Amino acid sequence: VGSAEENAEPDYVIGVINESLGDLLTKAQEEADALAEVAAKKREEADAAETEAEEKAEQMDRLREQAQAVADDVQWQSMYERLRIWSKEQGHCNPRRNWKS
Asked: DSSP string of the chain?
């Protein structure tokens, strides 16, 4: 049987190891929490970027539609003007202007 001092030494070592393990677990948990916060912020940023991209895509679609409407209008005006010039060259008259009551 060993002395009280010899029997106390393994308990002391076990206590030190347990304390060190507890410290390591605490640090690991703190790092995991910090990483989880970073991941949550990155998800929020990604969601915001996705929302912004969708809004810009919708805006581009609206602008494309408006541009097409303007192009169609310009094309119709050009065709009308060419038809008016051709009609005048052919000697056609505008029935509204020459309407006799």
From this structure: ---HHHHHHHHHHHHHHHHHHHHHHHHHHHHHHHHHHHHHHHHHHHHHHHHHHHHHHHHHHHHHHHHHHHHHHHHHHHHHHHHHHHHHHTT---TTTT---
Q: With DSSP H G I counted as helix, E B as strand and the rest as coil, what are the percentages for the chain, rounded to 5?
A: 85, 0, 15
Coil, helix or strand for 15?
A: helix
Look at the chain and count its residues.
101
Q: How do residues 19-57 score in pLDDT, each as one tens digit?
A: 999 999 999 999 999 999 999 999 999 999 999 999 999
pTM: 0.51
Query: What span, in angstroms and rounded, lies between the C-alpha atoms of 67 and 69?
Result: 5
